[in-house]
Design goal:
Layout (H helix, E strand, L loop, with lengths): L3 E4 L2 E4 L1 H8 L3 H10 L3 E6 L8 E7 L2 E7 L5 E8 L16 H18 L30
Antiparallel strand pairs: 1-2, 3-4, 4-5, 5-6
Helix pairs in contact: 1-2
Length: 145
């Protein structure tokens, strides 16, 4: 059984387990943790969930949630992949369009709101949102798709 090492000021997860959940190799995981492209939120259970912990790992297009009991035994591990829909392509060469940035910010806000006040992590979470409109560039006319 996978364990999470829990101390008052630290939690440690097996890099192989987390890398597999994030669909990457351990070297990319370690680099992402160092450069901040992978972040984590730690929550401690209260009331009937006292002693449990929930760790949520955030990558640009993937979220992984793990819960563990007071002894660090992994209870659940779930992942959500946000890559099913293609994002608008940037024509400016800057990497992100305003639409893409706003879309990702809205998706993050919806996820944060959906996760608020939920524990344990096995509770179902549902969010809905409208896809951003795409504009075709080149014809001089705006075409919504």
């Amino acid at each position: 059984m996978t364990k999470i090492e829990i101390a008052d000021d630290m939690m440690q997860v097996d890099a192989k387990v987390l890398a597999k959940a994030l669909r990457m190799d351990t070297n990319d995981l370690k680099q992402g943790m160092r450069d901040g492209t992978i972040t984590c939120r730690i929550e401690r259970g209260e009331g009937k969930d006292a002693g449990k912990v929930r760790l949520t790992f955030f990558l640009a297009d993937r979220r992984v949630r793990m819960t563990a009991d007071e002894n660090g035994n992994l209870l659940t591990c779930s992942a959500v992949d946000f890559t099913r829909r293609a994002m608008p392509v940037s024509r400016t060469g800057s990497g992100s369009t305003e639409v893409e940035t706003a879309y990702r910010a809205r998706l993050d806000a919806l996820l944060d709101n959906a996760l608020q006040d939920t524990f344990p992590a096995s509770d179902p979470v549902a969010i809905s949102f409208d896809s951003p409109r795409r504009t075709v560039v080149g014809s001089g006319k705006r075409q919504d798709r």
